[in-house]
Design a protein that fits this description.
120 residues, Nucleic acid-binding protein
């Protein structure tokens, strides 16, 4: 039987914020040009990695503002990851159980959201 954990609210909040930061970063990457620096159009040769060719258009590169947005989100992601991994809660969990507990933290967010929807 799997152990369930009573995660502290600040740890759950940090994981929720980390999930949001990662979603924001993913959305930002999807709208940015593929290359940080300006780059001329190019095409991958046939048979290189994949059997089909793939062409890439000119890339204007990322603006200073876009680079700054990415840097801010990456730093926030690093800070939140560090806060989660070094939270005092983990010292209460036996070493061999920590990987499972860390995995359950991510699922605790889904359980919390489900309980909130049931209450509404």
């Amino acid at each position: 039987m799997a152990t369930t954990y009573d995660f502290p609210g600040d740890l759950i909040a940090a994981q929720q914020e980390l999930n949001q930061v990662r979603a924001d970063l993913t959305a930002l990457y999807e709208r940015l040009p593929y290359s940080v620096e300006p780059m001329e159009a190019w095409q991958r040769p046939e048979g290189y990695w994949l059997a089909t060719s793939r062409a890439y258009p000119d890339s204007p590169g990322w603006s200073e503002q876009e680079q700054q947005e990415v840097a801010v989100l990456r730093e926030k992601e690093r800070d939140l990851t560090g806060a989660i991994l070094t939270h005092a809660f983990w010292s209460e969990v036996d070493g061999h159980e920590r990987p499972d507990a860390r995995s359950q933290l991510k699922h605790a967010l889904a359980r919390t959201a489900g309980e909130d929807q049931e209450a509404a």
